[in-house]
Specification:
alpha/beta; seven-stranded mixed sheet; 12 helices; 20% strand
Length: 323
Amino acid sequence: MPEVTMVQALNAAMRDALAADDMVLVYGEDVGAAGGIFGVTAGLQDEFGRERVFDVPVSEAGFVGAAIGLALRGYRPVVELQFDGFAHPALEQILSHVAKYRNRIRGVADMPIVLRMPAFGGLGGKEHHGESPESIYASTPGLKVVVPSSALDAYRLLRLAIEDPDPVVVLEPKASYRSSESGELTTAGPAIGAARELRAGADVAIVAYGAMTQRALEAADRLAETGVEAHVLDLRSLAPLDVEAIVGAARTTHRVVVVHEAPRTLGIGAEIAALVQEHAFDELLAPVRRVTGWDTPYPPGQLEQAWLPGVDRICAAVQEVLA
């Protein structure tokens, strides 16, 4: 099986979508000749031309808003917002219009818009270059939100997002861009809205997504050396959430630790804890623990690893729920 990085898988997803459907467009800042700041769109303009893969000025609200008009004309725009923090100027368009338009017109037209955002930390960036905006989008009805944790699933999720009749925010973990995986690039497998069980275990469930999934797996390996078998669940879809998988993991293991790099307050971990409390309270042997970023602005690069959840913090949280 060929080995691909997440960048190559995302590039292949857009290439295959552009080849399959003439109405697919790819645009954003520097996505054309430059191939994107991380190289995710490299070569697409050469292959499909400037009319289908093109650059836009620094005008996030404008080019996200333009996607609505393109969708109403039958196009399927795939829009790159260069960094998570740079999407904020477009929030009014995303939250007030992209998310609501299909419902506003009672489904008369689809709104197949994909908003790709290189997101999260781990590359030594600072504010606006390492942020975790998932709660903003996941709490907005009308938007679907996905976060891949591996190369093959990145291909699957992006292809499914492009085919979806609703707007989908694809938060791409920059720290995982160069990670690689062997296997076939395919859309077969779990759909948007389905979680993935990456490791079976009966002692504790570690629930994670994005780059934190790898750290959860590393923690599970370390815990196994002490006789603790951890069940690792990769959420991969934050809106909709796979409630059945989350509750099932809680009922199976009786202890849950949620890991994400967004700040703790009102993060996805709070929603997971609430769902477990509502649906599996009678099965719990310990309170749900959260291992998260801190409630501060994103730090400078030299403090980044102290800010992000690490394997040590995950293992410590597991030991607390097992005590």
